[in-house]
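Try it yourself: sequence plus iron/sulfur cluster, in.
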Amino acid sequence: MCGIVGIYSKNKNVSYLIYYALLTLQHRGQESCGIVTRTENGFKIYKGMGLVTSVFHKGILNSLDGYVGIGHTRYSTTGKSSIENSQPIMLNFSLGKLAIVHNGNIANAYLLRKELEEKGQVFLTTTDTEIIAHLIIKNYIEEKDIVEAIKRASNILIGSYSLIILTDEFLIGVRDPYGIRPLCLGMDNDTIILASENVVFDVLDKNFIRDIRPGEIFVIDKDGNYYSYYLNKKRNAFCAFEYIYFARADAMINGISVYKVREKLGEIMARKDTVIADFVSPVPDSAIPYAIGYSNYRGIPYRESLIRNRYVGRTFIMPKHSERKIAVRLKLNPIAHEIKDKRIILVDDSIVRGTTSRRIINMLKRAGAKEVHYRVCSPMIISPCLLGIDMPTKEELIASNKTVEEIRREINADSLMYLTVDELVEGIGLSKEELCLGCFTGKYPIDELESIIKLIPKDIFLYNK
Ligand code: SF4
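Structure, out:
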């Protein structure tokens, strides 16, 4: 996870634009956020723990003047949740300054760090992003060419990375050669924007131009000229989970409407279902389009049975288990008089540990629901994500070692159905060869990934928050 943005403007202070962009990308990370801008007099940086609205205020944004800058909302995968690990990461070196924001996860980070430390490299953070920054800087000092430096660094990075880099000369967007995490391009006459999701362009009233292509290095110079360069080509492997849960429903990811995919997946679930119920209800808010698709296909009324407190963050991206538990109770409340004695088809986007599903089903049953039929519009998650999404270890994933019937019993549903991997692929509308489906199949698109994992001590790899 993580939301990233970079903005170049010919004549405007960009700090407010970056602030609004980060608010738009808040769903991608809620632990910390930060902005770096570049002025004629150097770089300015401000970072803090918490939501964008609590970290930034007018005085800070006014002080971050500059015609170009980058911003980040963080959700940690590698490196604990702390102010040192918040982004942008900014480093001084002999040729100037470099600030970087990153969405993704470098699987061989531990090994690269060990190697760099043995050569005397000092690290300020425990993130994989700082490793990327050091690799780029090292190659930049040797090559004196930032694009070559990025290419050389990319040759040894194994994992997923959408990056936005700010140097004394350039604003640069990079998407890894598999295109695992999203990054897109928007602009108008005097502004160029790189952002994780195109919704940023809607909010800032700019035109969505296109996705940054897998392996593309998109360079914007001080005069607003831009150029594309490419890393060595690999197969596309867009993250399927962006469509299921992470991206906003109003986003277009890789040219495909996330809302349409979710609606279609609800229809596909309805197509194979025969259960009898009084109404269809979503687990709010992320499952709403799925439930609408399901309801339309089967002609069963759509009703809400749970009301979400919108001022509480999404539980899945809260880092500590204890926080997630409280958040479920805080954020969902059943509408008892709507539920009493009713048979409900409850539609959800996914089940990770199963604890949230069990709590929700029990909540509905305590409120008087006669039956709760749980419909999960994604396949069973059997393997952790190694490419930038924080998921529990394999042992904690409920579907990694249980059958559908065992899961049904554990979450206390009256019936339970999932989609298959083929049905998910059909709903997204891309071929299997263009997607990463690793958490559903245990097979990841990057060949070296599994051999790398075996080399890393278990307590260090990925889950070291
Ligand atoms: S393993 Fe799953 S969550 Fe991770 S990148 Fe692949 S599809 Fe996305």
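One thing you can check immediately is this: The first strand starts at residue 3 and ends at 9.
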